[in-house]
Amino acid sequence: MSNCHNHQSCIDGALIAAQTICKQHNAKLTELREQVLLLIWKNHKPLGAYTLIEQLSEQTQRRIAPPTVYRTLEFLLDLGLIHRINSLNAYIGCTQPHSHQGQDDEVHHHNYFLICKKCHHTQELIDKDLSGRIQSLSQTFDFTSQDQWLEVTGLCRECR
Amino acid sequence: MSNCHNHQSCIDGALIAAQTICKQHNAKLTELREQVLLLIWKNHKPLGAYTLIEQLSEQTQRRIAPPTVYRTLEFLLDLGLIHRINSLNAYIGCTQPHSHQGQDDEVHHHNYFLICKKCHHTQELIDKDLSGRIQSLSQTFDFTSQDQWLEVTGLCRECR
DNA sequence: AAATGATATGTTATATTATAACACTCTCAA
DNA sequence: TTGAGAGTGTTATAATATAACATATCATTT
What we know:
alpha+beta; 160 residues; globular; homodimer; Arc Repressor Mutant, subunit A; two-stranded antiparallel ribbon
């Protein structure tokens, strides 16, 4: 782990947030979903689906097939509890899931990531100002923006 | 094509720009590379690698295998002549390849796209102000940014 | 022109990521 | 108690991408 912090409290917080958000959306946080979410958080770096399948298979002592995991990922993505890092084909826990909730119960994806090219440590940003700026920039091109994905690659402090 | 404009002049311009940039980098714009670049431009929408393989196979009347196309895509990507749209696993021509040239002959990727969810029409933006803003935001997180990828999804004028 | 080395392309096989389709299970409300 | 929906299991396969090695092409030197 490249950034020092209380890791367990991250995980605990993520779990509590997940429980709250599931309740809000009348969705069930099943054992499988909780396991997947926790594994993603424990790794604390973008995690590929097949790595996740491996870890999950080991942990449960039985063979987990891809669709099982992909469905679970989709569930967590839809609720904004995790994010997909497109440039890595990998998944990471959302640090502020509540901030992605719209008034209409819809999840808006305005997600920004700083991704270290060396260690793949990934930091999520949330910046309302930047969101607004990108939105209005879109408007000048007569484009109605919905979701925003920003991936900035470079070097984190440790790897520099 | 969802945005009206002189399409042939786009293509012609892209080809001339490619020739110039290849010369600058002492790289060869071979027939294959030119064919691929033109096909990408003719489609004028993000094009998947395997669609490209199909079109290229048809056009040349022989079977083109994936590595051939992927290598060519890599070449064009490296020179900044095309971009990869990560959210679509697809490739599109760069509208302003010269603007990605650094002084040190290195290509910097600060690329922003507006992607229509319905028709996949994709508009490239270049905005130095936004680049700077994202760069300085990265700095506040003690992160040395190199490349920036922004993909905004939503609806274009025609699809709204 | 022949030899050489570097670059480009061809070819075969396979890795990696993701989804389709259908079967089974479990819960909970009618 | 039953049947409808949600969740998960299972098998097969689709879609995207790369590794490894063979061959060809071209420029340069001899």
